[in-house]
Amino acid sequence: MRGRVTIVTFFIALPCIRCDAPDGYVVDKTTDIGYRIFYQSQTWPVARDECEDDGAKLAVPKTLEEFSFMQKLVRGMHYPSIVDSEYQVVVWLGINNLDDYRIWKNIDGENINETGFHEWATGNGGGYSDAPEEPHCAGLDAVHWLRDFWCHRRQPYLCQINLKNKI
Ligand SMILES: *[C@@H]1O[C@H](CO)[C@@H](O)[C@H](O)[C@H]1NC(C)=O
C-alpha cells in the first residue's frame, strides 16, 4: 500500500516542472516568470488591483525577450473570450505616466527608459500633456511595440508572477 502511494506520487510529480506556477499561468522557462491573460476586461487601475489579488502584478517587459514572450501570448489570445471591451486589441501592462506625463513608469515606480525595454509603436509613448484626454496607461497588442491607451477603457490584461523571487 505504502509502495503504491509512492509510485503514484512519483508519476504525478514527474511532469510537474514548475509546481509553484499558479493555475492559468504560462511560465517562460528562461526567466522563471509566469504570465496569465485575463479576458474579463477592466480599467487599468482595476486590472492592477486584480493582478495583486491574484498574488501577481500587471506585467512589465524589461527586455526584448520578455516583451516577445508576452506578445506571443497575446497573439495566441482567444479573442472571442474577451468580455466587456470595446477595443479588444490592447492588453494592459503595468506601465503608466500618471505621476508625470513626461515619464513612463512601471508599477514599481521605475522609469522604463532606465529598466531596459521601452520600444513604443509609432505615434505612441509621447506623453504630450497631463490632460485626461491623453492616453496615460500602456499595453501591447499582437503587432506593434508598446501602445499608449486611455486608463479608463476596459481592456483584457496580463499579470505576471516572478517565480524565482517567490519565497
Ligand atoms: C525615453 O526614451 C524616449 C525614446 O525611446 C525619449 O523620447 C523620451 O524622451 C525618454 N523619456 C525620458 C523621461 O527619459
Automatic annotation (TrEMBL):
InterPro entries named among the record's database cross-references: C-type_lectin-like, C-type_lectin-like/link_sf, Ca-Dep_Lectins_ImmuneDev, CTDL_fold
Gene3D superfamilies: Mannose-Binding Protein A, subunit A (3.10.100.10)
Residues covered by the C-type lectin domain: 35-160
Domain of life: Eukaryota
Protein keywords: Signal
CDD domains from the UniProt entry: CLECT
Signal peptide range: 1-19
SMART domains per record: CLECT
UniProt cross-references to PANTHER family, sorted A to Z: C-TYPE LECTIN DOMAIN-CONTAINING PROTEIN, LITHOSTATHINE
Protein's name in the database: Uncharacterized protein LOC113394739
Source organism per UniProt: Vanessa tameamea
